[in-house]
Structures are given as C-alpha cells and as structure tokens.
Design brief:
Blueprint (H helix, E strand, L loop, with lengths): L2 H10 L30 H14 L9 E5 L17 E5 L10 E7 L8 E6 L4 E10 L2 E6 L7 H4 L10 E5 L1 H12 L3 E8 L1 E2 L1 H4 L9 E4 L2 E3 L10 E3 L2 E2 H10 L3 E7 H8 L1 H8 L6 H11 L4 H4 L1 E7 L5
Parallel strand pairs: 1-2, 1-3, 3-8, 9-13
Antiparallel strand pairs: 4-5, 4-7, 5-6, 8-15, 10-11, 10-12, 14-15
Helix pairs in contact: 2-7, 2-8, 4-6
C-alpha cells in the first residue's frame, strides 16, 4: 500500500490505530509517549494562549468569538471552561465532525503533524523520483518502490532533481488536505496552530533519510514500519506550503514564529504577571521557562497564524 495509507491505518484504524486506543499518549509520565506544550499543567499555558489570541484579534471583541480547539486528547483541553474571555469554548475530538461557528478562533496543537504523509525517494542512477509504499512479506512490513504511482509523481516536480546520492522526502500530504478542508468551511476569525516543521529548502537539503519518525515511551525512532498501532508516527510539516494554503483561502497577516518569539510578542503581559507575582511558586516559573526558553519548547515548536474576514483596526 502507499506510505500514506499505511500511516493512516497505523494511526487511525478503528480496531488497532494508535490514536483509537485507550491509553496515555501525551504527558510527562513514564507511561506516555511524548509531551508537548499543553502538557505543562499550570495556568501559565492558558494565560499565555488567551492573551496571545486576544492580541491577534486586534480591536475585535473576544466575546464575539468561539474558541475552537481541534484534536485535544480525551478528557483534556487548553482552556478552563470558567475563566476565559470568549463567547464559548468548543472542543473537537477524534471522530467528531469539524463544524466551525461563523466567528471563531480555531486552535490546534500538534494536529497537522499527526496526519498521513507520502514518502518519495530519489534514485541518482536514473535521476528519478519514485513513490515508496509498504509491503507485508512473511509477516514483516518492508518498504518498496511502487510501480503504479504516476498520479503522485506530480508532487515530486517541485523537488530537486540533481542529487548525487539517494534522498528521501516525506511530504505531509495529509496536513495539506486537512488544512484545506478546514479552511473551505465558511468561518471568519483567527487560525492558530502550534506544531513543528521546516522550510522547503531544509526538507530538501538537510534530511536525506526523510523526516518521518515514531515516538514511544519518549524515544524517537526512524523505523516507521516496526510497530504499527503501538507508536506515534509523524513527519515535519512544510511551512511554505501551509502558509500558501492560508493565503489562498483569503487569510491575511499570515505569519510563522517560533514559540518563544510568539509568546514574547503576544503574551508578554501574561509572562510579566507571572514573573512579578510574589506568590508565584517554582512550578509556575518553571512552566514559563519550559514554554519559552530556546533550550526547551521555545525553539522546538513553531506557531502558524493568520486572520480572515475580520477588521483589525
């Protein structure tokens, strides 16, 4: 099967998919597989996120907008239901229809990177790209070149054609399709997503084995077909492609910043209120450090955002 179909099956199959299982996936526990910004269990993340969204709304009243969080883990969400300035909070979880109110702040954290991706490999001997698939042979899953993949070779026309050694590109087709489907819905407001990704030139020059990998028990591996259903599978997003999709769907002020810069520019008052609060304990100060320090999550994650259909002045 094509690589993206394998990833789709491994992550979302009704019976065996990684995200369908009732298990602890996200958090700092030794029993979880990875942790992210939303794992910082204090009011700090909430304060930073709220202030940042309100600032990006400009002069628009946050009470007119529903805060919609997509793909939160079961039983969790980023904002307290009782202490926010928005019209309402809506959480969309796996399997639920994505319905967006007319005026919304649409937020996600590590949602787009959890979508299927295709794998392509360049053969320097014939100067051609081929699509890679997954084959089951003698109870072992292995990668192999797909013979009938002409319809997807169009994607490779944007890739370099002059490598002297084999090169693999994992292209986040699922993230692109998912974002397009979200933006086709008729809503206006703010889109904000926290995730990790790369610019196109780095995907094409710095990762000859591809960016696809798995996470389990806080360990990373590039053996993607080894344990389907038991591990998270992901690849880096391409920020250039996603920014273009936003612009093509009438979003303005489209921007990309690392998490440190995003919060320092848009959540500075929240940061200051925590640091200057004499009653702030070590947990709160530690949370600030984890979220914005470049050696922690500040540089690991980026924030893509933009506005549509709202007056900023």
């Amino acid at each position: 099967m094509p690589f993206d179909e394998f990833v789709e099956w491994a992550l979302y199959d009704d019976d065996t998919g990684y995200y369908r299982q009732s298990k602890l996936r996200v958090g700092k526990s030794k029993n979880s597989d990875f942790y992210t910004s939303t794992s910082i269990k204090s009011f700090v993340w909430e304060k930073l996120l709220i202030e940042s969204c309100c600032k990006l709304l400009g002069k628009n009243d946050p009470r007119d907008f529903v805060f919609v969080e997509i793909a939160a883990e079961p039983g969790s969400n980023s904002l307290d239901q009782k202490s926010h300035p928005f019209k309402a909070i809506k959480t969309i979880r796996l399997g639920e229809p994505i319905q967006i109110p007319d005026k919304a702040i649409v937020f996600s954290n590590e949602w787009l990177d959890a979508q299927p991706f295709k794998r392509f490999r360049f053969d320097p001997s014939c100067k051609q790209w081929s699509e890679i698939g997954v084959k089951l042979q003698e109870s072992v899953l292995t990668e192999e070149t797909l013979s009938d993949s002409d319809k997807n070779i169009e994607i490779t026309k944007q890739f370099p054609q002059n490598y002297s050694t084999p090169y693999t590109i994992d292209w986040p087709t699922g993230a692109e399709e998912t974002l397009v489907n979200l933006l086709r819905i008729n809503w206006r407001g703010l889109f904000v997503t926290f995730d990790y990704g790369l610019h196109f030139d780095r995907i094409c020059t710095d990762f000859p084995e591809g960016t696809g990998r798995t996470y389990a028990n806080h360990k990373c591996s590039n053996e993607i077909t080894a344990n389907p259903g038991m591990e998270d599978i992901t690849c880096h997003l391409c920020w250039n492609a996603l920014k273009k999709i936003l612009s093509d769907h009438q979003f303005t002020n489209v921007n990309l910043k690392n998490q440190e810069s995003f919060f320092m520019n848009n959540g500075s008052e929240a940061i200051r209120s925590v640091i200057e609060n004499q009653q702030a304990n070590d947990e709160y100060l530690g949370s600030i450090k984890e979220l914005i320090h470049p050696q922690h999550l500040g540089q690991k994650f980026q924030v893509l955002y933009g506005q549509r259909g709202i007056q900023m002045n």
